Amino acid sequence: MITAATLALVLSLPAAGIATLWLLRGRPLGIDADEAAVLTGILAPITGLIGYIFHRSLTEPLRRLTAWAHDLDRRADIPPPPPHQGTREAADLAQSLLALAERQHARSAYLSSFAAHVSHALKSPLTAVRGAAELMADDPTMPPETRQRFLKNILTDCDRLTRLLDDLRGLAEAEAPLPGGRCRLAEILADLDTAAPGLTLSLSGTPERPLPLSRQALTMVLGHLAENAHQHGATRLSITVTNPPGLIVEDDGPGIAASVRTTLFESFVTTRADTGGTGLGLAIVRATLAAHGGSIDLTTGQTLTGAAFSIRLPV
């Protein structure tokens, strides 16, 4: 409505010019004082109205949006954008800024939570290593078998820290899209055997079909699923290629515990903390797929009775 009114006023300016020329037709250059007063009385309100409408529809809404955007940096919450954004374009800009602010707020909350989890995950093994080292340093007469046990514990905790750091690096890499490409399952079977030695793999559906993921991305996704199944006691892993492009991955392990089903793909969620599980494997799988436009969800197994995952791949 405001845009239409502004357009109408702008289009009226040529008409005002024509009216001026009509008043001056057949006269020498210049107008007398009365005619100048008439023209001023006509054009001044029109010019003022145009200026007001531009101020109301563009300048003032943009000023309020700018103030609102600056205020976001000083607040922990997200205030609603200012009302009456003027033109439709300004309103669309306000909604886009609001969506961006919400994404940034969610990202900030995620990073804060993630940092707390990382700190906790690092603290436990570091505390154990420090405690064992201090005990050995304080007791030079410690029996060899006791010292050997402490050294073994230190090495175990160092291995745990190494796995954690490797998974953290993997998660960071997973959130950045890898170069695009296509890959067949047969091309990565050797990689899956390395990730989960002793796990029997079976393929079904259309395994010869090229999948819309690079070899590196597909290996990362299926490698973590295979390793996760193997670590939970599974001996068989079934991979079915579906159409539209996707995968059903099933194993014959104990399945997913009910206590973690709703948070399974979040970082640091694990049922194997006591045996060195980092809780990052499935988070890496989800992040890798999301970075490429795909997704993963729990599903019901079709051929095996353990955990089952449905993977949607980018078209």
Automatic annotation (TrEMBL):
It is a multi-pass membrane protein. It is found in: Cell membrane. Gene3D superfamilies: 1.10.287.130, Histidine kinase-like ATPase, C-terminal domain. It comes from the Bacteria. GO terms for cellular component: plasma membrane. It catalyses: ATP + protein L-histidine = ADP + protein N-phospho-L-histidine. The chain crosses the membrane at residues 36-54. It comes from Elstera cyanobacteriorum. GO terms for molecular function: ATP binding; phosphorelay sensor kinase activity. Residues 117-315 form the Histidine kinase domain. Its EC number is 2.7.13.3. This is histidine kinase. Keywords: ATP-binding, Cell membrane, Kinase, Membrane, Nucleotide-binding, Phosphoprotein, Transferase, Transmembrane, Transmembrane helix. It is an enzyme of class 2 (transferase). Its main location: membrane.
